[in-house]
Amino acid sequence: MEERIGENALLRRGESGQLLVAFGSIMSALNRNFEFHGVLSKRGDNVLFLRDEKPICYHSGFTGLTGSIEENVEFLRYLKKRLGAERMTCLGISSGGYSAILHGYLAGADDVLTVNPRTYVSYETGRRLGCGPRLPRQFDPIYEHYARLCEEPRHLDLRQVFSEHRGRGGPIIVHYADNLPMDVINVGNIDDCPLVETIRHVAPSHEALAPMLRNRGVIDGHLDNPPERLVAYHRGTGRAGPQVPARNSAENAADRHAGHMPPA
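User: That's the sequence. What structure does it adopt?
Assistant: Structure tokens below.
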């Protein structure tokens, strides 16, 4: 049974002891779709499908339900308890992956699964790493949100979040395309952080990896394995060997000129 519990929130009640929280990317704010709906609706789990609003990566809350990241985290803890769920899993792709990691880590989720996640929405971090947003002025709505509140922006860089907050959750699984420089740089920002396990792949584009993993059954495989077995399971789904190092800004500029990645 599915119930619209907010303008951009859809709750599907299942019979399992799992609560899946599917964070839509910025594309969900544009196409108005609930990401993961097709693959997760076939399962018997409780699922909260979330759609980004502005897009703002949920910094202004879940529309009609909460008003901040902190309230989002408390709502997820409340929902897990209300449903009697024994396990909470956060999922997301690209900017939805940033939201899944952020909320999952702060809420103490039992596990997190992401694909090619954005790991910062900070212009300062982008300048430092030589890798800005995928779309021009993409982070502006987040900065404008905090400016309206007369507050300093927060939770903009996951590496800083890991440093400032002590996580109580389970493994954070990060699948990424190690042949795509922007994805390598984003994952390199957190690959040595606690709980994070990175899995390398080759993909023709940023958008192509998630369907590849879905078609190979990796999403279902993750959800069917207990958290303590996830790292071993996912290590068998990616490439072996050393990781490709993050590139510097000059190399990124060369890739943009060649058409391999969008402008910063």
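The CA atoms of residues 129 and 248 lie 7 Å apart.
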